[in-house]
From TrEMBL:
InterPro entries: Thioredoxin, Thioredoxin_CS, Thioredoxin_domain. This is Thioredoxin. Belongs to the thioredoxin family. Keywords: Disulfide bond, Electron transport, Redox-active center, Transport. It comes from Paramecium pentaurelia. The lineage of its organism: Eukaryota, Sar, Alveolata, Ciliophora, Intramacronucleata. NCBIfam families: thioredoxin. Residues 2-115 form the Thioredoxin domain. GO terms for molecular function: protein-disulfide reductase activity. It holds the Pfam family Thioredoxin.
Amino acid sequence: MFRLNKLIKSFGSIQNFTNWEKDVVKASTPILVDFYATWCGPCKRLTPILEQKVKEHPNVTLIKIDIDQHEQLANQNNIEVVPTVMLFQNGKKVNNFTGMLPPDQLNKFFEQIPKQ
C-alpha cells in the first residue's frame, strides 16, 4: 500500500489515495496520475495547467505522486522522466506523456477524455 502525502484536489470525484489497484486501476472514473518531483522545474510549471484542465473535466480525478517519496510505485510504472502523466480509464492506461507538452499537444491529450 502506498500513502500519498500530497493529493491535489480535483474538481471531479476525489478520494484519498491509499492503494494503486483500488484507487487507480479499479476506479470507475477517469484518473489522471501525475508523477512528479519537488525539485523538477517542468513539474512545477505543469501543475497549474493540469489543475485548469481538470476543471474543464469535472469527472476526472487528478492524483499527484512524488517519485522521491514513492520510489517503488514509480519503478512499477517505469517512470524514468518527470513529469510523467498517465491517463487511466476503466482500469487501463489509455495514454500518457512525459515532459512539458506544448499547449496544442496538451489540448489534444485532454480532448480524448469524455467530459461526463
